[in-house]
Write a structure and sequence with these properties.
16 helices, mainly alpha, three-stranded mixed beta sheet, 11 strands
Length: about 450
């Protein structure tokens, strides 16, 4: 089914899954987007280098290992170039020529005193460098934005209704604001628009609310949540979005949250915005027993039944499985197969292929253990983190037929353990007595 990325530790009958299992990326429709990747950044005082996405780790190294403190790091427009510049300068002159020296524990014993070096824009050279980096970054971003504004080859599908837009990005952005009440700001305020839309689309495809960033089990639940909670906007506290707004390049230290209150007078809202035209994307579900993947749940049900003689629909009906029971059953089977253990007879095998062959030969495909064996809280948690099969499961027919179907569940309005006392103290009884006395 998939190459496992989770380690297991087997001791007797106990097994422990230590790391999250995840289907290989090629099995899934989308992958997580990251915009922090770039060339490694080298320390200004040694040869150690760190990934560009781990700036905090580099700064910690500089402070702890070299006693160097860089002030107002967040206001440095291009941190890698900044570090490269000072690495060269520190090889040309002593660090004390550029940095203020701070002595700690100045009144204590000499052996307990430490000297730290402060690099900040009080130094004219540092201030000029920061201004030049800011100007250079601003020019690059404005040039990029102008190209996007003039681009007539833009082509993209709306993430909510799958309507295609060709020509200029503003057509799509205005459409989402007008038809779906989802505005990320005026088009002229945005840069790196394609990457921005990729990020938002990836979140929706992974059932994540764009505002509160909670994850839901299916697209319908997510759609209802975003509509009812008025979460049809992006999270202002998520600074991953900073790079997509021009305002962050114009004024250092100013966040893009103010963009949310922009005057969008040209974009009038449609009051009847029920998002009913939001079409779900393919689920990319993976079979329980092999590596077969499909883009709809019906196809995966058909594949399971015809190829492996495993009828999930029949199990759901026979056992009256509600949604979360199905989730636990799927996670249980996934886990047993990962451990190369038959869920019907608990016999272990050397490989998954041998196990599947055993399930076919013995007819154990549809032979589940006692419900108490798999109806456990631990199976609420996905065996595979990116298991799209879980998101495509549906409630059982008994659930969709309404509350009258569950006649076996009594609805008790009051505590009837003491009927005599209840009649004497009933509010209705008092009301009736009061009405009788009034007449």
């Amino acid at each position: 089914m998939a190459t496992q990325t989770r380690n297991t530790n087997v001791t007797g009958d106990q097994d422990c899954i230590l790391e999250p299992l995840c289907f290989p990326e090629h099995l899934c429709a989308s992958t997580c987007l990251s915009f922090n990747d770039g060339p490694p950044v080298t320390c200004v005082l040694c040869s150690d280098s760190f990934p560009s996405s781990e700036k905090d780790r580099l700064l910690k190294h500089v402070v702890l290992d070299h006693k160097l403190v860089i002030a107002d790091v967040k206001l440095i427009a291009d941190f890698p170039r900044y570090m490269l510049y000072w690495k060269k300068r520190f090889t040309e002159q002593p660090i004390t020529d550029f940095c203020s020296v701070i002595k700690t524990n100045s009144e204590g014993p000499v052996e307990q005193q430490e000297h730290y070096f402060l690099l900040c824009d009080v130094l004219p050279e540092d201030r000029i460098l920061r201004e030049q980096l800011q100007q250079r970054r601003l020019e690059e971003v404005l040039d990029k934005q102008q190209k996007e504004r003039d681009d007539t080859t833009f082509h993209r599908t709306c993430m909510f209704c799958n309507e295609e837009f060709t020509g200029n990005r503003s057509l799509l952005l205005n459409h989402m604001a007008k038809e779906h009440s989802f505005s990320i700001g005026l088009p002229d305020n945005i840069v790196y628009c394609t990457e921005f839309l990729d990020t938002l689309e990836w979140k929706l495809e992974n059932m994540q609310c764009l505002y509160c960033e909670k994850t839901f089990r299916d697209k319908t639940t997510l759609k209802d949540h975003m509509r009812k909670k008025q979460h049809r906007r992006i999270n202002a506290r998520n600074h991953d979005y900073d790079r997509f707004y021009i305002i962050n390049y114009l004024e250092l230290g100013k966040t893009w949250e103010e963009v949310q209150s922009e005057d969008d007078r040209d974009l009038f809202e449609d009051e009847d915005d029920d998002w009913s035209d939001w079409q779900a994307h393919p689920v990319c579900a993976v079979c329980l027993f092999c590596e077969q993947q499909t883009d709809t749940m019906e196809k995966i049900y058909t594949h399971l039944k015809e190829t492996h003689e495993f009828d999930l629909h029949k199990l759901k009906t026979d056992l009256n499985l509600k949604f979360y029971h199905q989730v636990k059953l799927v996670n249980f089977i996934r886990r047993e197969l990962h451990q190369c253990r038959c869920y019907g007879c608990q016999v272990k095998f050397r490989s998954k292929e041998e196990l599947v062959q055993h399930l076919v030969n013995t007819g154990h495909m549809m032979q589940l253990p006692e419900v108490s064996h798999w109806d456990q809280p631990q199976y609420y948690f996905p065996t595979y983190e990116n298991d799209a099969l879980l998101t495509g499961l549906s409630d059982s027919e008994s659930e969709s037929e309404g509350p009258n179907h569950s006649s076996e569940v009594p609805v008790i309005a009051e505590d009837i353990s003491n009927l005599k006392l209840l009649k004497q103290t009933s509010v209705l009884n008092k009301l009736l007595k009061g009405r009788g006395s009034s007449t």
